[in-house]
Amino acid sequence: MPRYKLTLEYDGTGLVGWQRQLTGPSVQQILETAVERFTGKAARVQGAGRTDAGVHATAQVAHVDLARDYPVTEVQGALNYHVKPAAISILAVERVPDSFHARLSAHHRAYIYRILNRRAPPAIERNHVWHVPLPLDLDAMIAGAAHLVGHHDFTSFRAALCQSKSPVKTLDSLTLTRVGDEIHVVPEARSFLHHQVRNIVGTLKLVGSGQWHPDDVKRALDARDRAAAGPTAPAGGLYLTKVLYPPDAMLEQGSREPVDADADDEIE
Questions:
Q1: 20 to 30 A from 4, CA-CA: which of 11, 176, 182, 248?
Q2: 114: which strand partners?
């Protein structure tokens, strides 16, 4: 069965997240329904990152095996037609070898978290930013974030229901910038723990508001206790923006290194 790589964007508002659930519509369920309407056959759609309820994506990656070969333009057009009226758009479709796996083959992921830092609340962006009306000290937040970059035990920033085998992750970078009225927090890593990004943002907000000193972030990290870190930031400000693959991910199985099962990305 031919395998197709899908790159897509979606608005997570009103969805239960990426993963199919019994409690409401998910991105996975909507895509799988679209595939069945297009091909007449059921198929499983595998995503690169299992985003949580209310979380958005500008460059999610998924793969699906179809019953026969279709031109990639036909797949893209048909899926975009059948996902309506959901706020999901398939941006690109590529044919890939059977050994490609959207989740397990990925070796780098990036998110952006948008904080709207102004007195007036959002109207148009209501479900797409975290509104923090009090001024935030960006330099203090950057100083606090520096303690989190690198290879650490992130137990303090891990959700209680996280299913990852280990709390140890390598955070490759964590950049913060001010763009107009917004503060953008951009973490990049091979993979993330459940709610790791949102817990980091909630902690850095305490630093920016002056409730914490930047060095308190190190104290929270070293405590290895979820209660020692800050609150979980709202889901609506978070976006999955990038999923990268090594060059050999597009090679047939006999020509490439085996996938790393521990590279799984937890729900964000």
A1: 11
A2: 184
- Residue 47's nearest CA partner among 31, 23, 36, 25 is 31
Kindly state the tokens that stand for 25: 């519509």
pLDDT at 252: 63
Helix (H) or strand (E) holding 93: strand 88-96
Nearest to 91 by CA among 81, 72, 76, 102: 76
Short-list 194, 183, 213, 239, CA closest to 56: 239
pLDDT, one tens digit per residue, over 63-104 is 999 999 999 999 999 999 999 999 999 999 999 999 999 999
Q: Which residues contact 196 (CB under 8 A, 6 or more apart)?
A: 154, 157, 158, 169, 187, 266, 268
Are the C-beta atoms of residues 51 and 17 closer than 8 Å to each other?
yes
Is-catalytic flag, 139?
A: no
Pick the catalytic residue: 11, 52, 216, 265? 52
DSSP letter, residue 50: -
- Model pLDDT for residues 165-218, shown as the tens digit of each residue: 999 999 999 999 999 999 999 999 999 999 999 999 999 999 999 999 999 999
pTM over 0.85: yes
In 3-state terms, what secondary structure has residue 152? strand
d(CA 122, CA 131): 7
Ramachandran area for residue 82 (φ above 0: left; ψ -120 to 50: alpha; else beta): alpha
Amino acid making up residue 238? L
The single residue listed with the structure tokens 């975009």 is 80
> What are the structural domains of the chain?
3-104 (3.30.70.580), 108-241 (3.30.70.660)
